[in-house]
From TrEMBL:
Residues 556-567 have a biased composition (Acidic residues). This is Cytochrome c biogenesis protein CcsB. It holds the Pfam family ResB. It is found in: Membrane.
Length: 580
């Protein structure tokens, strides 16, 4: 009777040597030899340093350092994103600001230390991928290694006797393994098969995807641009640097990289929840645009919504904010119009309580005929709560009961000094207040269509019935974004393949025994310990056992009436509990 062994003691070093090529190259990870320190020399040390840099543990360490280095970039104001916050931080924390400045923490992603980690990680990944790729290609071009001399030394094995000839067993095993998508061939007196190459392929795809993501990230940081523009209904925008309210870009970006396009804001539509706990929450928030792609492009209509940008080439136009722009008409003492325009005001809360200034820079003369400039602080609420509320705060974001509060000044706004000024703030250094009959600052609440007359015949201000709305747009160009997404998806797929696919080998040997009966030995070996290897081996052995007629063992009786098996046969039992 044939003997079946489920497991054997761990092989000795000498027996491990017996496996030879059979147990090698189940991974494309390069072998690391301990350096011979006394005879290293310059070339030896350089080789040792390169091996350390391209090892997996160093790559993981660099990836960890890169992640840790990005933390201050998200917690500390960055000069490339918000210069105002950086200036405020330095003003409030002068000592800490100097330390951060020396460490490059105000510009983390362009600092020397972050770039060094980034470049070393890039080199490490390339140095790891190239040799593993060539090794993997060599494995694909070769054949699975032949069977070791003693298959019983492998962790999962089985054997049985059969009346079939060795060639018949080999043919049946070859057909079975190829049907199960093993790469199989006859090597000497055994069939050698291997499966699970997608594990190593997934590993390589994961590393290559990391490089793609690094390159895409660097490309995007160097050539990105981001600008904001406030556009009032009826006005337009052309994608040039001078048109932006604020603009920032990567270090290699030039104005020639701007995508040529333009658009006009035809109408902004906003509706809000009227009742319930979500009162005031936007329900419809969209901007109707007419745009053209290129300097001579045909006008096309589109609607931009939150998180649904307009895409033109590499540029995306996002809708990011909204507010109101009351139409203000200013006349001098003689009734001549010196200012007539929609004034965009900046919202202060969720109900669009807004503030801003109106500046009359040219064309105005006071009652004495002298040239002066006028300035008005403006405070606007789309839904006024009434005098009983006691506050000038909007009760709802829609135009239910609009009220405009104006306070008036005259003098020199300082616009001719050459110093840039904000259109939303007024320099009162050289401005004087208009006084009312009580000697206080002249101010008044206006409803649409009402007029405020300035003291002493200085003119008037009219709040127009037509209240326009404005929309804030952010124009973003991020080259490499598609590559970064593709790299991320490929990295996830490659990592999943490397984690869940098992690389394993199977050998089937059939030889004539001393009594002339064919003895079949079958064994499997995986890259790492897994229950799948003995389970799969047991399934394959059971199928092959059924296809090869069993032979009686030398000690079996001639007949066995109390068993359903044929006399002298035995079902193979693979190692580690694998079942037929």
């Amino acid at each position: 009777m044939s003997k079946t062994t489920a497991s054997d003691p761990a092989p000795t070093a000498a027996e491990d040597q017996e496996l030879g090529d059979a147990g090698s190259q189940l991974s494309t990870a390069p072998t690391e030899d301990a350096p011979n320190l006394p005879s290293l020399g310059v070339i030896g040390w350089a080789r040792w340093f390169w091996r350390q840099l391209t090892s997996m543990r160093v790559a993981l360490l660099l990836l960890l350092l890169l992640s840790l280095g990005a933390i201050p970039g998200s917690l500390i104001p960055q000069s490339g994103q918000d210069e105002t916050k950086v200036a405020d931080f330095r003003k409030g924390n002068p000592t800490l600001g100097d330390v951060y400045d020396k460490l490059g923490l105000f510009h983390v992603y362009s600092s020397v230390w972050f770039s060094a980690i980034y470049i070393l990680l890039f080199i490490s990944l390339i140095g790891c991928i190239v040799p593993r790729t060539w090794q993997f290609v060599g494995q694909l071009r070769g054949r699975p290694p032949g069977a070791p001399r003693r298959l019983t030394r492998l962790p999962a094995h089985t054997s049985w006797r059969t009346t079939a000839e060795p060639d018949q067993v080999h043919s049946a095993a070859l057909a079975l393994l190829q049907k199960r998508r093993f790469r199989a061939h006859l090597a000497g007196d055994a069939v050698a098969a291997e499966k699970g190459y997608l594990r190593e392929l997934g590993n390589l795809v994961f590393h290559i995807a990391l490089i793609v993501m690094l390159v895409a990230f660097a490309w995007g940081q160097l050539y990105k641009s981001e600008g904001n523009k406030l556009v009032v209904e009826g006005d337009g925008f052309s994608n040039t640097l001078t048109q932006y309210d604020d603009f920032k870009s990567g270090s290699l970006f030039t104005s020639d990289d701007l995508v040529p396009f333009s658009f006009n804001l035809k109408k902004f539509t906003g509706t809000y929840e009227r009742n319930g706990p979500n009162k005031g929450t936007p329900r419809v928030y969209q901007a109707d645009l007419t745009y053209s792609d290129g300097p001579y492009g045909k006008d096309e209509k589109t609607t931009v919504r939150v998180n649904h940008p307009l895409e033109i080439g590499d540029a995306k136009v996002y809708l990011v904010s909204h507010g109101y722009a009351p139409v203000i008409t200013v006349r001098d003492g003689k009734g001549n119009i010196v200012y007539d325009d929609a004034v965009p005001l900046l919202p202060l809360d969720a109900n669009v309580t807004s503030s801003g200034v109106v500046k009359v820079l040219d064309g105005y003369r006071n009652p004495e005929g002298k040239k002066e400039q006028l300035g008005f602080n403006a405070f606007f609420v789309p839904t006024f709560g009434g005098a009983a509320s006691g506050t000038m705060l909007s009760q709802f974001p829609a135009l239910d009961y609009p009220v405009l509060a104006l306070s008036a000044y005259h003098g020199d706004l300082g616009a001719d000094s050459g110093i840039p000024q904000s259109v939303y703030q007024m320099d009162k250094t050289n401005m004087k207040e208009f006084k009312d009959s009580k000697g206080k600052l002249f101010k008044k609440l206006l409803r649409p269509g009402e007029t405020m007359k300035l003291p002493n015949g200085a003119g008037s201000v009219t709040f127009g019935k037509d209240i326009k709305e404005w929309a804030g747009f952010q124009v973003v160009q991020e080259p490499g974004g598609g590559w970064a997404l593709a790299g991320a998806l490929a990295a996830i797929g490659g990592l999943a393949a490397s984690l869940f696919i098992q690389r394993r080998r199977v050998w089937v040997r059939a030889v004539k025994g001393a009594d002339g009966v064919t003895v079949v030995e079958m064994a499997g070996l995986g890259r790492s310990e897994s229950a799948k290897v003995p389970e799969e081996l047991g399934e394959l052995a059971g199928i092959l056992y059924d296809e090869t007629p069993p032979a009686p063992g030398p000690d079996d009786p001639a007949d066995s009436p109390d068993t359903d098996q044929e006399p002298g046969t035995e079902t193979p039992v693979p190692a580690e509990g694998a079942e037929k």
